Amino acid sequence: MDLRVIDGPLPTSDTLVAHATHKVRRALDRLALRVGWIDVRLFDDNSPAKRAGRQLDKRCAIQVALAGGGGPVHVESNAADFYAAVDGAVAKLKKLVSKKTSRRKR
């Protein structure tokens, strides 16, 4: 699995990169042979226009290329902090990838 954590214009801490890497690898560990590459992108949507009264301005977007084609899988999660955004996106990713890979077995 080729995993990249890409931050936006603000630098991301090493602790956050380690958290995202650990969570994604653990979630997709049993599917390692079916995963080509993984991009984890972190965004801080902290502008008033984007936030519009919401406090969920940290966003994590994960894109995964599965072996065998079918195009990349994409999930996103917004939260009050980056750690919660990563956790939410990983939970969605785990469900979606399991669903996609179980369909291919049939």
Characterization of the model:
The chain has about 110 residues and is an alpha+beta fold. About 40% of the residues lie in helices and about 30% in strands. It has helices spanning about 15-30, 50, 80-105, and strands at about 1-5, 35-45, 60-65, 75-80. Helix 1 runs parallel beside helix 3. The protein starts with a strand and ends with a helix.
Summary, kept brief:
41% of the residues lie in helices and 30% in strands. By secondary structure, the chain is α+β, with helices and mostly antiparallel strands. The chain is globular.
Task: Set down the secondary structure blueprint.
Elements: E1 2-7, H1 14-28, E2 35-44, H2 48-51, E3 58-66, E4 73-79, H3 82-105
Parallel strand pairs: 1-2
Antiparallel strand pairs: 2-3, 3-4
